[in-house]
Amino acid sequence: MAFKKPTTHAAVPDSPDRLFRDLPRRKHASLFDHQGQVLRNYVAQALDAADVALQLPTGSGKTLVGLLLAEWRRRKFRERIVYLCPTRQLVHQVAEEASAKYGLTVEPFTGKIKNYAPEAKTAYQDGDRVAVTTYNSLFNTNPFFNNPDIIIIDDAHAAENYMASQWTLRVSRFEPEDEALFTAMASVLKAVLPPHNYARLTGDWQGVDDISWVDKIPGHLLAEIASELRATITANVGDTSHRYPWRMLAGHLHACQLYVSFSEIMLRPLIPPTWSHGPFSGAKQRIFMSATLGAGGDLERLTGRPWIKRLPIPEGWDRQGIGRRFFMFPEKSLTEEQTLQLRRDLMRKAGRSLVLTPNKLDAEAVSKDVKEHLEYPVFTADDLEVSKTGFTSSAHAAAVIANRYDGIDFPDDDCRLLFVEGLSRTTNLQERFLINRMGANLLFNERIQTRVLQAIGRCTRGLNDYSAVVITGDELPAYLTDRKRRAYFHPELQAELEFGVDQSTRVNAQDLLDNFAIFLDHDEDWEEANQGILDAREAATQAKFPAMDQLEAVVAQEIAWQTAMWNEDYTKAYDSARDVLGGLTDSALRGYRALWHYLAGTSAEAAAAAGEAGFDAHARTQYRKAKEAAAGIPWLVGLARGSAAAAPTPEEVDHGSLLLQVEQLEAQLVKLGTLHNREFSARESAIREGLKDGKTFEQAQVLLGEHLGFNAGKREDDASPDPWWIVGNIALVFEDHANAKGETSLIDATKARQAASHPDWMREHVPASAGAQIQPVLVTPAKKAKDGAMPHLGRVAHWDLDDFRRWAEQALVTVRDLRRDFHEPGDLAWRAQAAQALSDSRADAPSLFAWLAARPAREHLTSVP
Hints:
By secondary structure, the chain is an alpha/beta fold. The protein contains 38 helices and 25 strands. The strands form five sheets. The protein has a seven-stranded parallel beta sheet, sandwiched between helices. Strands 12-17-16-13-15-14 form a six-stranded parallel beta sheet. The longest helix is centred in the C-terminal third of the chain and has 23 residues, at 650-672.
């Protein structure tokens, strides 16, 4: 064969926007103004920056901007470029768009390295083509892309779980693959968990407080079990997918946080140590592209990069949104069954629809309903990642996707109807712990908002797209309809939500169906409604979340702390934690300050253990300050007193129990919903009516306990007590005589003996009561007791039945008053208000226990022969 001619290097324009004109196969005549503006800003301001962030709203041509940057740098500097996408489907979508729309040839890489084509690998390695691949192809223990020059991260807001996954061990109690590892890890954790929390971890749970429970194993206890835990995981990880993150974590337990819940154990560092991953940290430049970059340093925390240069959003995009969304909130007007029927009717009208659910269980229920009542084919996320063609070519179909709010798009006529049936505020145990236990929800305001925006924007990806968005579930409807929180959204979204709320209030199902038909037609009737949205947009202004400037100012020090801990430089870690604390002065950041006082304490304690003099005292000081700001965490009390084994004062124990009750009250309010009063009022009614009747009294008493934030339950076993209420180390167990015939009834020795023995039964059968103070309580209208009953009634509290009902009514009023001011879990100001209100009405566990303990029944009943 003849020798090949030497490659000639064509001249490359001095800007990526000019390169676009040189692409002969492009289908677009020119770039939009805002695209050219971003590309020119990049060359002028960020060409040599190590980390750059570009904010381009969805539908503004973000993919083209990223591909042009990649191709221009590849040609001009002969660099190896990797363009990262969240999913395989998006990899192929980007590659197809590059060729079909823009006249660019890129190399898509998905699947296993051994299946990569040799010519594709060579084209990338020689800098002849841009590689388009998934995050997971770069963030793994043995990546093919081990020395890229430039990394472009598309949908950077979605990157955290993909990046952090390389250093995150998540072991589920419900996954068959995880069963052996979960059981083995739980057996090690038993030594450092209170008995009732160990019971929760291993599946002995009953109420909403158990299901919402999350905690962290404190650093000093993790250090105690580190060797045993390391050996246990190594022996049980086997050939599961967990072996890959375990390789990264095994030698760094000292720098990790260990979280536990009713369903999962999670081990990870606070911030992903991306600096330790050469393929990522060794690149000349990382370019983060996102529709929403977030404020307060969130992108830096997600990526482990301390200094990211942000380029401003293009002019005009701060007010104008992408496409048009018609929001419906059916639960504002319809019952649960009516809402379900509306979903079916809307699906019939739309033909194709997309349903996003927060978990697999809900997705399975939706899929079953669609198949049974509509007989439509149902597509899953796995189906769509391979190809959307099956869905988009069907006249009638439903795509049902669990716990996934980004990466799968349905532009144009692909789908005009989106259901978002609930949205979890948190995606992992670390976020849940920081929000629900530490009250650090301010840190996640931007992140939660971004997830919401991604969810509601699946079907509006371009300027001309339009989609109805039906919002249901526990938390999301309340989040989107709350006027205060709405102020932080983009002006166009504020206007869309205001319109949707108005159209969903005091209407029936047919009204919603008729409005959806008008929206689908998109003709003159809709134009008038749309003009109202545009007018509202012009009147709206977007507020900024509080304390974002302080959070942004300290993020570099947070990353410095994690780096120092990873490298076992504990004195430097302590200094970095103190630098963080120096910048967190806003009162709204109290919960986050508590976290950093705790982390400063762990750093100091590690330094002391390594032989650094004086750091023991520093640790105690920091732990004490952490406890003062987050008194609801029991293990902080012992740390603050100088020893994990130091006995807390009775006041500290009571305060911790009270705050734990408030946390559980929050969970109950979330469960009952805040969008409307139907479920809450129905629960109140069930309690009030149930307490009136002796036959339903006990079940109503269980509901009342849950309503007040107790772990409440009842079992119909032989010799079992009536309901019990538990929170922290306080347990009340009832013996109810609601069926007794008024004051003429008599307490005999058998009843008295039974009531006095209830604590023994509780310790034997209810794990949550282990180690608790247990007070048996006799609720009765009786005024007299037999002589033989009196010796047993010294240990039993007396509560007159009528007094109990009056107290219960006042407690219900207190909770309703608190609900009016409740917006979301983790609000420290509301928690303080709730704690005070419960105490004032003697509905808090410590006060109630103390009051009952001072009321022995033998002193309130008259003895008769």
